Amino acid sequence: MPKFLALLSGLATKNHEALAACGIGALSRLLLGAGHAFDEDAWRIAIDALAEAMTRTLPDVRSLVKDDVSGDLVSNASNGVAVEMTAEMEAAVVLGTHPGAWLRSSGECVCYASTQRLLVSAAAEAYFRHGRRMTAVSLFNPNHRTCVCAIRMTSCFVSQALLETLTGALERCAAHSCAIDGDVELCRRLCRATAAAATAAAERPSLLEGVVKSMGKGASFRFLPDPPLVALEVEASQAALAVLLHLHTAGDVDTSSTGVTLKEGNEGTGVTNDRAQSEAQAAAAASSRDRLASLTTRILRDFAKLASGEGGALVSAQARDELNARAPLAVDALKALARFKDDLFAEKVTEVFPALTALVRCEHAPAEVSRVLGEVFTAKIGPLVVSSLADRHK
Q1: What is the DSSP letter of 78?
Q2: Where residue 54 falls among pLDDT bands split at 50, 70, 90?
Q3: 367/374 Cα distance (integer angstroms)
Q4: Residues 198 and 204 sit within 8 Å (Cβ to Cβ)
Q5: Full-model pTM
Q6: For 79-102, how does the pLDDT look when each residue is reduced to its tens digit (9 = 90+)?
Q7: Closest CA to 112 of 54, 40, 183, 190
Q8: What is the torsion angle, in degrees rounded to the nearest 10, for the CA atoms of residue 94, residue 98, residue 102 and residue 107?
Q9: Is 225 helix (H, G, I), strand (E, B) or coil?
């Protein structure tokens, strides 16, 4: 089992999209199809393999921009005679390295970003399919009651550690891509570097041909978009939000529905809202409630900033495309906020309320975001205000 998982994990971290996809697909099918037969040791090995693959494939986008490179191109002269710079030479100045080397590093980032999206999906599906099973306490001997408490506590701590490993990997992926996309200066310099490399590749096609050849048979080259990791950021944040929200709410008793899909859009994935928690899930929920609130607030704050058009950000079609790409994540965050337990919402309302009011003022917020925002005010803010006023009149 460990060697087989190591093989699949090794494939998943290859700098080749097709091979990585094969490794992740096989790993995901193994977890989903055979997870019911895993014991705690098997789950620990599997979750560690997933987390390690997610760590090893974090796209190193910052390495594509050199801090010590001057953006000014100076005239070169030799014995008083000016030397005409080619696009490849100019690109080398901007990139701080040979364009071919930069293109290979850029292609690796694109490949890893695609790999990360598959790993995020595999991790989330594994949790929602086998969350209770991977954290179940099966060691119980009624004939040895003296040891039962210690055994159950030990198993609970181990299982909670598995959940922390899984959620931590998802959160790190979301935080990494968010930090990259949110660095305006980095994105600006990356766009300039990409333009220089593209110009050099257009002037000398053999540059790109050599990069594609080095990537392996069947590989193709794509430049990073702007922002570079927005698709990964959205999907990783959605997955982390879904898992943390399930931990936070799955222990609630909901008599109005049984077997209802937990998260809209999960039809067909085997994700059902059975409203049941293991001891480890309950413990993980208690330790992760602040992270759930922080993630939700960050998503709404960032979306409000983008939708408000600060600094004229919405003048370009590209910025509008980014807003539309992030809208489903904002909707998920608002729906998660509406499902916060009352004590958590009351505790965090001062942190999230500025983002909510900023969204109210946004002229460019999509209709679905505005609709769900209204539901949050009706379900959460309204009752909180009424309760506060009632307390004042007592």
Answers
A1: E
A2: very high
A3: 11
A4: no
A5: 0.82
A6: 444 545 677 777 887 788 888 899
A7: 54
A8: 140
A9: coil
Query: What number is the average pLDDT over the span 342-363?
Result: 91
Q: How many residues does the chain have?
A: 394
Q: What is the rounded distance in angstroms from the CA atom of residue 124 to the CA atom of residue 126?
A: 5
80 φ/ψ sector (left φ>0, alpha ψ -120 to 50, else beta): left
Instruction: Locate 219 and state its tokens.
Output: 């590989």
Q: Which residues contact 36 (CB under 8 A, 6 or more apart)?
A: 130, 133
pLDDT at 16 over 50: yes
Task: Read off φ and ψ for residue 81, nearest 5 degrees.
Answer: -105, 125
Our CA angle for 295, 365, 261, nearest 5°, is: 55
For residue 64, give the H/E element and its range. Answer: none
* Separation between Cα atoms, residue 109 and residue 103, nearest integer Å: 10
Beta bridge partners of 273: 260
More confident call, 285 vs 197: 197
| Among the ranges given (169-173, 276-280, 365-369), the one the predictor scored with the smallest mean pLDDT | 276-280
Quick one: which of 341, 356, 346 has its CA closest to 299?
356
